[in-house]
Amino acid sequence: MARNDAQWLPPPTGYVKCNVDASRFEYTVFEKGPFGPRLVKAFAIFEALSWLKSIHMENVILESDCLMVVNALLRLSIDVLEVGMLVHDYLMLKAQF
Question: How many CB atoms lie within 10 A of CB 70?
């Protein structure tokens, strides 16, 4: 699907949709640090999944705007060393749902 064709769809009945995306605001200040954007997005996905599990939420659909992290989480790509440990932790947590 082309980016221009992308359209939000509500989750199916009985499901919860959790969207983890990045935002940019006009007055946002960027502080350079040790963590790259992919690692931050992978961590956000992991934290969202951890929180959903802690409140006993099931039937969850996760969405993200970071294709590289999504592919790693779906095991379509393992060439993401920056997020490798989080991908491993995510897969272990996902197996508990």
Answer: 18
Residue type, 36: G
51 vs 39: CA distance, rounded Å: 18
pLDDT tens digits, one per residue of 27-49: 555 556 566 777 778 788 888 88
Helix 84-94 to helix 37-54 angle (10° resolution) is 20
Dihedral over Cα of 72, 58, 13, 47: its sign = negative
Measured distance CA(53)–CA(51) in Å, rounded: 5
Smallest CA-to-CA distance from 57 within 67, 65, 49 is with 49
